[in-house]
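ok so heres the complex, two chains, lmk if somethin looks off
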Amino acid sequence: MAKVIFITKTNDAVEVEGDSGSLMELASANGVAGIDGDCGGVCSCATCHIYLTPDDFKKVGTPDEIESDMLELDDNVTQYSRLCCQIEVSENIDGMTFRVAN
Amino acid sequence: MQNTQLEPNSLQQSVVIIGASHGGVNFAFNLRQQGWLGKITLLDSDPELPYHRPPLSKKTLQSLEVKSIPLKVQKSYTDSHIDLCLGKRVIAINKDNKIVTLENNKHLAFDKLVIATGCSAFIPPITGLSETVDEYGTSQYFAMRTHSDAVAIKKALSASTNKEVVIIGGGYIGLESASSFIALGAKVTVIEKQEKILSRVTSSAMSDFLTDLHKAKGVDLQTAKDIVQIKHTNNKHYVQCSDGSEYPADFILIGVGVRLNTQLATDAELVVDQGIKVNDVCQTSHPDIYSIGDCTIHFNKIYNRWIRLESVQNAVDQAKVAAQFLAKNNTSAPALPWFWSDQYEYKLQIVGLSQGYNEIIKRQEAPGQFSLWYFNNDTLLCVEAVNYAKAYVLGTQAIKQGLKVNKQVLNNLTIALAKPQLFQA
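and the predicted structre for the whole thing:
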């Protein structure tokens, strides 16, 4: 079980919890604004962009080649950017706070 | 919800949306996000909670239990005050009285209407196709368009002893399904009418790559085949071609294209010509009736011609454009078409439209990792990338921003693809 918080572009904090699936699915199931997931979670659309804190980024891990290339589609990309369709919901991310990029 | 810059009367106005797939659902939520306060009714004849369609032929088919991936959870509709009416078919639009009629002859009034009816699978009139049934008389030929199609296909696959499937049509739906069937241990034959698969939508280079890929994975890929009939013996079906060849099947998947769901629009005397004609803000020939997604045809300012797109991207982008205009009278920049397909361990990403190219540059980065750059003289029209998102992203930036691509860099594999070098004049 993981409990996480999304901070949207308009600074709304949305606390959600889940135990499986991708972080994108969890966010869109809870209607987090700015997480569209238009491609259904196959790393093809870059509409589920989030920022992690440097510590959380280290813990979650770096994006693979396709994901980091896809992140370049977004002008707002930083070194702590991830596409949350590529992050699994697990205890590993419990307690983390993510900022939604768009 | 931001309530600034509302259209003054939106509170009293009612929007009815026909079709709750990628286009209709995104439109409804976008309209709310734009601050629309009026009633939003979203209708669809499909009883299933609106779901992502592209995974049907991929993830959905391959997962143990066929479960759809919802576009939004039920609660989101309630929270956004979107009246989602599933299993409701619209049978008529009266544009003068602004009323739609449902199957049960109930009427629904609208101030603004959105037609997001998409398209349906085309089932060709092949002799014997409709007799493709199992011992209980259950149909054993399928399209791959809806959640119930995926459920039925999965059931047919589980029930078949030899797991022999014939796919009619070597388009994206057929090929993605082939890849899923192979993953599920089926014996797959793909029968294509043209000399090459995907010949209508891509170049020989991409067609050849996918042909080799599917053959290497064990698909019996048959091209230039004219199917004459389907014969049946003991619950086994035989697809027979004009050259005498014959392919056995436990069940048949049809992927030969679509029919646009434009009948409602035609009957309502909206302008329909190879799609429901819409302007830059997705209005039809009637200013209070909008249309979005696969069923529309629009004049694309990037490619300077009328185009019809069957894609999630187009449905989602048109939904945004129409919602912004309806709620706030805002217009948006023209959207660039993009597509993707996942087959086996390969991700194909396409940006732009290649039609009209006179030069292709292929960059092979590594085995199974390459990109095709389609030019008309110096204008980049399209990039197709296989397991190489970098090329897809650079291509997107080049086309969107109208940047000139340095072909020498592109042609020189010793220079890694990167923004500054590639976009120098």
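quick notes: The first strand of chain B starts at residue 14 and ends at 18. thats all i got rn
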